[in-house]
Amino acid sequence: MSAPALRTERLVMLPLSTADLDEVATLHADEAVMEYVDGGTRNRDQTKSALAATERCWKSEGWGLWAIRDATTGGLVGEGGLQHITDLDGAEVDFGITIAKRHWDKGYATEAGHVILLDAWDRYTGNLIHAVTHPANTASAAVLRKLGFRRVDDRDIRGSTQFLWEVPRLA
User: Fold this and answer.
1) What's the pTM?
2) By the 8 A CB rule, do 68 and 13 touch?
3) What confidence tens digit (pLDDT) does each residue in 3-26 have?
4) How many other C-beta atoms can be found within 10 angstroms of the C-beta atom of residue 49?
5) Most-buried pick from 58, 82, 125, 164 (CB within 10 A)?
6) CA distance readout (Å), 26 to 35, 45, 82, 119, 148
7) How far is 112 from 97, CA to CA, in rounded Å?
């Protein structure tokens, strides 16, 4: 995984890997954090599999999920980036950000999302990036709007209605 760190004044983003397992397993076990994430909470083995998958994506595609860390302490704030999506016709990648509950309401999702999305356009060759949110997840919808996404459809995904968002590549 040869990706330089992405930085903001408060955050540093590095490619997510199995080395992040302990912190990400804690994030994935939090019911409040995972309430609107497909499949809900994940156990340690599920998290380990997900991290291995994102490592493979970084190696094969040159993009994937980032570990979002506090620039001062190095502690995990969350994760975010692109991943393959298979549930939507025509959609190839899904953009998402998951922030640890203790870091909610600090603007980290928007701050990290802006930098991650700018970098994604340098790595991803498609013309659209999609995102999916649960209708009740108004915080994520607000972040997506700030990042330039627009809601384009309501879809039944794995038995529940989800909002489909997209942002086009700018010329």
Assistant:
1) 0.93
2) yes
3) 789 999 999 999 999 999 999 999
4) 12
5) 82
6) 14, 12, 21, 27, 30
7) 8
CA distance 55 to 37: 20
Compute the distance between CA of residue 124 and CA of residue 32 in angstroms, rounded to an integer.
31
User: How many CB atoms lie under 10 A from the CB of residue 90?
Assistant: 6
What's the mean per-residue pLDDT of the chain?
93
Query: Is 45 in a helix, a strand, or coil?
Result: helix
- Any idea of the CA torsion for 83, 87, 88, 91, to the nearest 10 degrees? 20
Query: Hey, how many other C-beta atoms are within 10 angstroms of the C-beta on 7?
Result: 11
Residue 153, both tokens: 């459809």
